[in-house]
Write a structure and sequence with these properties.
It comes from Imshaugia aleurites. The longest helix has 21 residues. By secondary structure, the protein is an alpha+beta fold. It has an 11-stranded mixed sheet, with helices on both faces. Strands 23-22-17-16-24-25 form a 6-stranded mixed sheet, with helices on both faces. It has a 6-stranded antiparallel sheet with strand order 28-29-34-35-36-32. It is built from 34 helices and 37 strands.
Amino acid sequence: MAMMTAQSCRLPGGVSSPSELWDLLQEGRSGYCKVPHARFNIDSFYHPDPSRPGTTNTKVGYFLLEDIASFENQFFGINNREAISMDPQQRKLLEVVFECFENAGMSMEALAGANIGCYVGNYTADFASIQSKDPDLFTRYSATGMGPTILANRLSHVFDLRGPSLVIDTACSSSLYCLHVACTALTLRECSAAVVAGVNLIQAPELHLATAKAGILSASSTCSTFDVSADGYGRADGIGALYIKRLSDAIRDGDPVRSVIRATAVNSNGHTNGITSPSVEGQEAVIRKAYAKAGLDINSTHYVESSVNLLMKYVTQCHGTGTAVGDPMEVEALSRVFGESHSEAPLLIGSVKTNLGHSEAASGIASIIKTTTALEQGLIPATIGLKTLNPNIKAREWNVKIVTEQTPWPQPEISNITQTPRASVNSFGYGGANAHAILEAAAAHVPKDYSSSRRSHLPVRGYLTMDENDWKDGLKCENLHFLSNIDGHRTQLPYVFVFSGQGAQWPGMGRQLIERYTSFGETINKLENYLACLPEPPDFSIYGVILERAETSRINIAAYSQPVCTAVQIALVDLLAEFNVLPTTVIGHSSGEGEIGAAYAAGHVSAYEAIVNAYYRGFTISQVSKEGSMIAVGLEQLAAERLIAELDLRGGVYVACVNSPDSVTLSGDAHGIDIVAAAAQNQGVFTRRLRTDGKAYHSPHMITIGKQYKDLISDTLANAPSCQRKQRGAQSVRMISSVTGRTVGPEGTRTATYWRTNLESPVFFRTAIEMLVPAAALEAFDFIEIGPHPALELPVRQTLAQRGPMFYSSALARGKDGNATMLNLIGNLFLRGHAISFDKVNGICHAKSRSYTTPKVLRDLPNYKWQYDSRLWTEPQSSEDYRHRQHPPHDLLGARVGNGNHISAIWRNLLSIENAQWLQDHKLGSSIVLPAAAYLTMAVEAFCQLADPSAAQSTVVFRNVNILKTLILPSSGSVKLFTELRPASISNITISTECWEFSIFSVAKKDTTMHAKGLIRIEKSTNSVELLRPQANDVLEPQAVRNLYDKFAETGLAFGPRF
């Protein structure tokens, strides 16, 4: 069983989403309008008699209001040269399918490489007709740009979809055929999901003229479905897309479910009276076929959940084209199928075509979207425009009812029985290709309170953070964070994790992360359990120390701060890994926990080994009895050493950490540190005391406990239980040691000697940072400080001041809400182009109840705002001249045709007696002859079309007119007659701007016959017409008209009544 997880559309009436379609249906509006002038000048193709060559009998239809050539090609990674050669059907289909994916919660990242099929219904090839007017202009992109076959392939290529990819053309049933083939592919597991789409854009007049000639267009170009006035259909634009999956897979993956597709079926009418003649039997058969496939009883369609015999009301969405013959036949087919079960409640039927017109290959998708939304809303919109029912639709006899006003979805007539709302959708191709689909409401097929959430990550990004209980105030545009133009860098830079050391800790650090993210708290609990299993376990809880109030906190006591800081760093590393934030390089700083955290993040040591190492470090340091102190000083290393020497403090104060070119940390005897601090302050040098619990790390003070520490961690590294030796899968992460200033591998960090050296020796943090970015390099990195506070940001920036661009963020900050700092970190990483697992970031797991709240999907969010910078369009001049010609065909002159220049002009006419019957009254003997006056008329009409409109008030003057050969018209068929107008030559190098030369000739196969030629010009003088009047002294003899015609007949001129 398949289900639809998302739908999207662009439809007439300004509809750009399913919710806007629903608004249009609710309000009883339609998308009826005149053919947009940008498509073609419909006035120049109009004639009330559609049999006239090159004309149609309608000026209106149902059209998209947007510029169909507009396209944000860069969004899809398509260059301008290729985009300009792409059919707007490809362009707009890409946009609509992307919107469909967004509504499905399918991100671009999740789509790439997925086994998703593409099935596109298409009927029109107007763009190919436009571009093929001049094959000399074809480019390397023309074949793929205008070929209908590529519609589905374009989707597969742009979105990197690896399932089946094909286009189906069965005319009006194309998109429902696509749905059938896609559902079959899902059943056969040929793909894991499928895009089903239909696209129909009217861009050129050719197909418009052809459908008019076939007699299937309404004279008013409306779809008057079911009405007595139905005389054809109104053509329409339309683009629609569905995203479907197997129902079980959708529920497993947490996809939105809009409706369930119980079954689809297709068939053909076979041999009928004519290939375009509909068949009641064929339509009935396809409906029965679909219900048999679904295992649903035709006579009790809604008996899915109950065996009780009910009289139910059924709902059917008709194909409803709006033809006098087709509508009654479709309704009769429905009555044959469902009639027996509707002895009381009539079958409800309706059609969306009265609102949207007939979008041909896309019409089935429009019906599916309407029906799905109606199932969701529990309402059936009205079929508008029905005034008088077609008498051939025997509504009472067939027990059917047209829904002419909004109607609640039918309910079972037995109140204690719950039935699943169900609807059927018909679609029939004019060549006899029938299709039928059965839809059901989703609610009966998914768990209660079912929901999901996903979204694509686009190049231009923003984020906001807010409390889940304050979304009304938080969800505002002004709260959005964007990347500034100055600091913007949207390329994914490699992550460098910098681990802060002793002195950055503070009470309550990480507390909010424990409360929000279960995994963070679970990591802390796991580390506590590791310590509890030691021979000499701690007498404190890591969790408890974190939650202590500031006034009673023990966080600055070495025995507590070492393991607690390391635990927070391990938990941060694991949490960021859940969010898809993984380092490429790690650098640790200072007294143990920084390097221990870095070794864990690099995969050198396990979480067990890291926390036990930190615990024993704190345990042994707490036994140092000598009072010490540490201070950060804003001096370069050599300047600091000179200051120590000047103060005669060598052997008591040491450079413990070289942080940057402008910063060191001094360590040693407490009294000596006081002296240095006072001297530095007197010189105006920056100083800051570190919270080290009276311990002088990285100084000889540590030598007294160095052996004990080494022995304890030797046992840890050698005797750790096998189940606790598992390291993070991060062996490809580079670790730069601040002990050696060089890259170090696990063979170096997994020795007790390394960690004793780390405790007793100076920290070369500056060297480590310089090792990351050599002096000549301009590499860029995203630095993230892992620890209680971004204490190392300034040293890193000072060290890399002359190098490439860098970005620095921190997971926590002193005194700030840990959840807020973490979310802002993630948001800023997202702005800079990184891929983030937002389902993990925004998933809320309540620590006390251990219950997980899944974010609910917001369906039908506003679509992405497409950015149309320029209009990408090109076409041959001959096509543009044809589409936007200014004048309709003239009975004699015909219509102007493109000739590649704007100096001369040519008109072409298929002159026939059928279209100019008055000509058969002008005969020479038994032959119908084109009158000589017709040549003059054609020349005048051609001249007026080219001349200034004011010329209509002037006099036309002929010169040198020659009738060269009689044009005999056949009694049947037509003659190709051409009229050419060009400026008259004054000399070999000069042409006239007032006088034109005309020539009229016919073409039959390879023979060309010149019939008339001459000169024509405008005579501005108003007196010229007086020359044609008889003079007063002329003697005119009255003649009977009959006598005149008798004389004509004697000479062989047989004039009929119309001459």
